[in-house]
Amino acid sequence: MFFCSQAIQNPSDEALQDQAWAAVVPLVGKLKKFYEFSQRLEAALHSLLGALTSETYNDPTQHLEREQALAKQFAEILHFTLRFDELKMTNPAIQNDFSYYRRTLSRMRINNVPAEGENEVNNELANRISLFYADATPMLKTMSDGTTKFVSENKNLPIENTTDVLSTMASVCKVMLETPEYRSRFSSEETVSFCLRVMVGVIILYDYVHPVGAFAKSSKIDMKGCIKVLRDQPPNSVEGLLNALRYTTKHLNDESTNKTIKSMLQ
Questions:
Q1: Which residues pair with 257 in a beta bridge?
Q2: pLDDT tens digits for range 168-193
Q3: Number of neighbouring beta carbons within 10 Å of residue 141
Q4: What would the mean pLDDT of 217-243 be, rounded to a whole number?
Q5: CB-CB contact of 141 with 39 (8 Å)
């Protein structure tokens, strides 16, 4: 998708540079739009978490059943988040092309060459976009940071309200995936992928906001069961999700982590 920076074999060839610039500008526009979209997603996440965790309830499952529409929107955000990051990791040239754009734009400004347009990115925004795409899983980091921020800004809200919602969603996804009665109702493999991504997404958010994380013995998430569900899928379809648990969680390498769980992820 992003190969413009590799297209210039001879930097002195002005025609090739013009072609590369013409190709990279609209792609940078897309990168900018996805970055801006991530900011809107974080704001939506705060609103959803506020609605899903604001009430005191005894049964998180019943609470989510009453708020099915909001829970579905939350799940849709997590599905998009994991899917976006999977695609981002298969496009390593993104950062190279964005760096090329910034270098070329800087030279054009020095030489007073006009570069105005709807896709132009100023230095401050370019720095934020660069930091965003520098992360291996940028959307997931935005969601994790957003959930952590939500908890820290709502200290009057019991943290259990948030962690119970997340652990319950993980449990619901696991049961749907491992129970033949439910699994047989899935209309396509896309539905399976949806449930898998949502399950992994809520596990990671839980791990960020719970004091001891998702992998400790006291965790309300059945991590052994969730990992088994992932392992039971075709390997090519879940390797990215297993890597997300291995490399983007907060507490996996803590001393409190169940050793069996750690070995299951190796």
A1: 216
A2: 999 999 999 998 887 777 778 889 99
A3: 20
A4: 93
A5: no
Find the farthest-apart pair of alpha carbons in the chain and give their distance in angstroms, rounded.
69
What per-residue confidence (pLDDT) applies to 7?
A: 47
Closest by CA position to 147, among listed 162, 128, 129: 162
Find tokens 């390997």 and name the residue.
Answer: 235
